[in-house]
Design a protein that fits this description.
mainly alpha; 5 helices
């Protein structure tokens, strides 16, 4: 069983675009590591309903090949370590309580939304009232 088949189910009936790009990336990594699975890649291409989605799959495949080549050239020839790092990589989840709202780690005050973008009250007629300086 190949690394790809161990990570992904190959008996799928339909794929979404995100799943297709993830699989294409993994196929690219596996191909660079010496495991060829062109039939699966062709099936993923066929599943995509637009040229845009097919091009995204192609880009993901190429990116997987390129990153695997860079990882094997830079570090070592340990294919299992490259696969684990690129495909099975650790996912980062940010807890909503950990997002800074104010203080040192928050956005600068200049990037906060200003009052200029706030909507006016629906019943406000101030914009069409007579200016104060015209009153005597």
């Amino acid at each position: 069983m190949s690394r790809y088949e161990g990570e992904f189910d190959t008996g799928w009936d339909s794929l979404g675009k995100d799943d297709a790009t993830n699989r294409a990336y993994a196929i690219g990594v596996a191909e660079r590591l010496g495991e060829f699975n062109r039939e699966e890649l062709e099936a993923i291409y066929t599943e995509m309903d637009s040229a845009y989605h097919r091009s995204m799959v192609e880009l993901a495949y190429e990116e997987g090949r390129n990153e695997a080549k860079a990882a094997t050239d830079a570090d070592s020839d340990d294919a299992d370590a490259v696969w684990a790092e690129l495909v099975e990589g650790e996912k980062t989840v940010i807890d909503g309580d950990d997002v800074p709202s104010r203080g040192r780690d928050s956005l600068p005050e200049a990037l906060d939304s200003g009052e200029l973008l706030d909507k006016q009250d629906v019943d406000s007629t101030e914009a069409v009232d007579r200016p104060d300086f015209l009153d005597r």
